[in-house]
User: Fold these one by one.
Assistant:
Number 1:
Amino acid sequence: MHSVLPSVETGYSWLVAVVALIIMGLALGAGWITAVALTEIAAEVGGSRSVPALATSLAWLGSGIGGVLMGRIAHRFGTKSTVIWGALMVGIGLSISTLGPPGPLWIGHGLFVGLLGIGAINAPMYIYISEWFDRRRGSALALISSGSYLAGALWPPLFEWSVRYLGWRQTMLLYGALVIVVIVPIALIFLSAPPRSNEVGNAPATPPATSFQVRLPVGLAFGLICVAGVLCCVPMAMPQQHLVAFCGDLGIKRATGALILSVLLCTAFLSRQAWGAASDQLGGLQTIFIGSGVQAVALTGFLFTQSESELFLVAGVFGLGFSAIVPAYVLAIRDLFPADEAHWRMPTVLLCTGFGMSLGGWLAGSLYDFFGSYTPAFATGVAANFLNFALIGLLVSRQLRKPA
């Protein structure tokens, strides 16, 4: 007979999750300034869009590498310390970036905003919040991972106005100060130590309806998940980082392009909450599989879309699809591997997704510089997406789903 231990979830768990959402929404907003001001920054280096695109890519890559390092530091010294450190580094990194492209922009984004800044916040926060929940962990992870989409829905229109009237440098300085002023005090107040988990190994304290297992060697299963994380995030990054510039190429005003980007990310934010609830029942791998399929279809739509109305529709469908994916990877790690390995497995997977985001954003800019069009970039993204779909399909086909 099952002995059900008390759940660690309380009302305060959800308060901490909301605070984490605010922190993520601010920290991850830093990279959107470069996306909105891509053409202005490129104009300072002879029109090369790969220069600002690489800055955003380095921030993603740096955050992934930093997450692996900071995940271990947070495991030892606490998430509060790493979050405060990360906020300070984001502010400093944006300040350094204003010294001009390409060098200071790359160093500011890659080293300070990415590796030392977001890297100290993103992965540690996933691990931290997963320790506050044992019944609705998928929903909680979906909520906090929506911080990037909350940032994308809220900030681009404001950044567009600020870049137009103040310039991209002043926008970075002001936003860096905002990140520090808001994140540091709320981290000090709310990010207390998580409750002591009732979990032992991979056994949940309050058993869910099902448990999951993949009929593959542990190392192979984890390696395939990491490769899949890269492949899904290459196409995921392309519209997010280049949509405003893509709209400009079609003769659509930048303000409208920023609004389309906001629609994409607002849709992602809202739908991610539904995906979170669904993932509590489906599990991480099946959620990734469905989301990857929807993302592939939507990205294909960008190859044939020319009008404003069509772009709004395709952007919304794209947001619906990709919003399911990244938190589902985190949930898959908790589904398939022991809980006491989460502090290194989660950051490693997030490093792979960050590398995919980095590669996708840079690759789209480089292919545009070579061909003078985003069509080859989106076509490459579709190919990577279908490889991800096939790989996750293989893992799902090897998965056992049984009563807990």
Note: The first strand starts at residue 210 and ends at 214.
Number 2:
Amino acid sequence: MMTFMKKWVLIPISILVFLGAVYWIIGKIQYRLNVMDIEEYEPVSTLHVPEHKPTHAKYPFIDVHNHQWIMPVQDLDKLVAEMDSLHMQVMVNLSGFRGKYLEMALNNVKENHPNRFAVFLNINFENLDDPGWPEEPLAMIESAVKNGVKGLKVYKSLGLTDKDNQGNRIAVDDARLDPIWTKCGELGIPVLIHSGEPSSFWKPKDKHNERWLELKQEPDRYRPSETFPPFEQIMEEQHNMFRKHPETKFIDAHLGWYGNDLEKLGKLLDEMPNVYTELGAVLAELGRQPRFARRWMITYQDRVMMGKDTYKKEEYYTYFRVLETDDEYFDYYRKRHAHWKMYGLDLPDSVLKKVYYKNALRVIPGLDKNLFPAD
């Protein structure tokens, strides 16, 4: 009798355990079916607030950070028509390169739209141990300026991947490069320099990294410590170089990668009056901290310039909206750069004019001031 009772009790318990396991598995499957990748999640906001969607800038502007990779053979008429629609009066092409390519780019500009483009040249810093350094690059810079070049652009490879003849990484503040920066100061041309990357590229690729999506989509942007120097080291090298050359004007690209720490960027600008900065590809940093960013932009209104980086006409609209309006909770134009929402800074007109064109007219020589208001 007892044996029968034990079997009778065990059967329902085993069934309950089985049913419980099935229920748990079904629940997990249902949950998984409702889960989507962050790249697919595109919620439509139900928020109703005033909206302004400008498609051209309130004032004419100079884009000091642009890349036109085929300028030697480019149809500049088409590009200028798009610039006119945006109210962009001057575009700075940082990808002028050198040699025959640079010569052809300058000729295209001179023959078609000489006052609408400024071309910067690029040099190869990995030649710094070769015979003819620094005399050859210095002569190249002088010749380029005589032919119409307005500045020097330094790519992020300096400090990250450029190596000398011994295979050592070339630091941004390497003394062998000093003649280059000195020459730019003597010629009165600015150096627009991109050093490093967003600091998140050095951090673990985990759920706490706010650039995780970008590192997933662009895995080659990750900067593991066994391959690259620390973010802080590259930045300090750049700042040392700025300090060593107070007579040279530097435009520190991308808010110097301190758009997420404007207080620190402000202290650097206070210390180094020869340094300016620009907004290329980092507008999202300002748009997520509108109150502090507005105060900061007003404080440093003489040191910041308009810049976009990769050219796409429709993406400028977000710049205009962040800088000019007081709109709330709207999308940035590239999800991997900002999964957060934007808020407008509603900058005063006097500040907008400086950011859009006045500061660039002071720093970049030879631009046509007649394209802009006289005030």
Note: Residues 61-368 form a domain with the TIM Barrel fold (CATH 3.20.20.140).
Number 3:
Amino acid sequence: MRRVAMLGGVRIPFCRSYTAYAELSNLDMLTAALAGLIERFSLHGAHIDEVVGGAVVTHAKDWNLAREAVIGSALAPTTPGITMMQACGTSLQGALGLGAKIATGQIECGIALGTDTTSDAPIVFKRSFAQRLVQLSRARSFGEKLAVFKGFSPGELAPQPPSTAEPRTGLSMGEHCELMVKEWGITREAEDLLAYESHRKAAAAYDEGFMDDLVIPCAGVFRDNNIREDISLQKMAELKPAFDRGSGGTITAANSTPLTDGAATVLLASEEWAAKHNISVQAYLTLGRTTAVDFVAGEGLLMAPTVAVSDLLRQSGLALQDFDYYEIHEAFAAQVLATLKAWESEDYCRRRLGRFEPLGSIDRAKLNVKGSSIAFGHPFAATGARILAVLAKLLHSQGGQRGLISVCTAGGMGVAAILEAAGPRQAVQAAGRGEKVRGEV
């Protein structure tokens, strides 16, 4: 197996939906982010073996966003584009697939990317009216056309916007997360504090110049417009719950991610390809894992990353504490806190993760050190690429041996990955050696 080099990432600023990017499509944003990556790494006219990614909220016309973005870019037109989707884990999963092909020698380089906009969400008619339109297009005579509208009701014209509810439960992600809050005893104060820290860290990352080569301007926007430098815990505490409006609700607009528009990209390659193109390696993508939980039967919708991370630790022989940085996607502050509590719980780790002892706690000073999704925003499919680029740069510019990524997704899934610093190969156990992993039942 060859090492998978993370060479860096570029994204456009993330903006709250219905604001700066209200007139842009997913393709517009994805093409802009890809152009920024091409400019940064001098890839004009270059053939990339695969460009993989997509969007969660899409129109029927956007059936191959990745390929269309390539065609609209300065990459060689021979570059294939592959569109895929795994909700909020889309671009991270795209990177893992590319990494596997690079590691096994199938390809030399690839770009993982993602985009999303709810400002340009597809609005469709009810199924009954849509079927009438299909029948109308096939009708030959005037009489057949009139017959199509027999029994027609004006109510059929009511538009059907996309829903964020889980199809199997009818509950939104926020409602599901409120169930996790009650299960794990998460407090409103802890959620607000985590969100407050996310904004403060994100603002500091811009002020210190950390974001300068990670974010390119788009549509006259130079910076994520959701970050609140002047955020106040007192004002946050005054907000009403957004999902459980009873006395027990804790999740608010301030401690969860907003609907966001944006796009992000990341470049991966073999070491040989990177050297040939005179591009420095920032980090290595070493392991990845995707898992799912039975949320329909009552497991927490956003708890799958706890399982994915546990599996990664088994495979690598590492402990949860063996990381210099932890990038846990902040779909909600409550999700992050529930994840941390689960890893600290002896009962959960024994019963659900099959371990003799809990994974334990992490050093919170190493968590989302440059801010995360609550501050930056969360264009669903773009978040994985954003996190990959940030973590690779952290390892490259600020030291440390390895970092852990954890992303929860709709559908009760989770995606996790490990990045290691560029330098001597780390001593990591290979999978399948048969050695007993510490803490495993």
Note: The longest strand covers residues 260-270.
